[in-house]
Amino acid sequence: MKTVVSNTGGAPVAVRVSGEGFAFTVLKFVTEAYHRERARRANRRAEIELDALPPELKKDIGWSGQRLHDKL
After folding, report:
1. At CA 17, angle to CA 16 and CA 21, rounded to 5?
2. How many CB atoms lie within 10 A of CB 11?
3. 70 is a domain residue
4. How many structural domains is the chain composed of?
5. Domain range spanning residue 10?
6. In sequence order, what DSSP letters do the residues of 9-46 get, joined into one string?
7. Is the model's pTM score more than 0.70?
8. Would you say 56 and 32 are in contact if contact means Cβ atoms under 8 Å apart?
């Protein structure tokens, strides 16, 4: 199976045109992509909430203010 990313910044798309497991393969791929995006959004939300904390609390918990998405 090959994955192809569109030029418009969309998600990868799996294409397998033959075989008995076609629907299952596509469903599994889309589900995995959905869960990755959901985890990314949850991380981003936590990052925003941590950035909103007062400096004293950030220091206490060891939050450096470094963006998580820069590491991904």
Report:
1. 65
2. 13
3. no
4. 1
5. 2-61
6. S---EEE--SSTTHHHHHHHHHHHHHHHHHHHHHHHHH
7. no
8. no
Nearest to 30 by CA among 22, 20, 41: 22
How far apart CA 69 and CA 28 sit, in angstroms, is 25
Closest CA to 17 of 26, 27, 29, 5: 26
Q: Is 56 domain-assigned? A: yes
Asked if the structure places residue 71 within a domain, the reply is no
- Contacts of 10-17 spanning 24+ positions with Cβ under 8 A: 11/37
Residue 20: inside a domain:
yes
pLDDT digits (tens, 9 = 90+) for 17-69: 566 677 778 788 889 999 999 999 998 899 889 988 998 998 998 888 766 55
As given in the structure block, the two tokens for residue 25 are 């393969």
The C-alpha atoms of residue 57 and residue 69 are separated, in whole angstroms, by 22
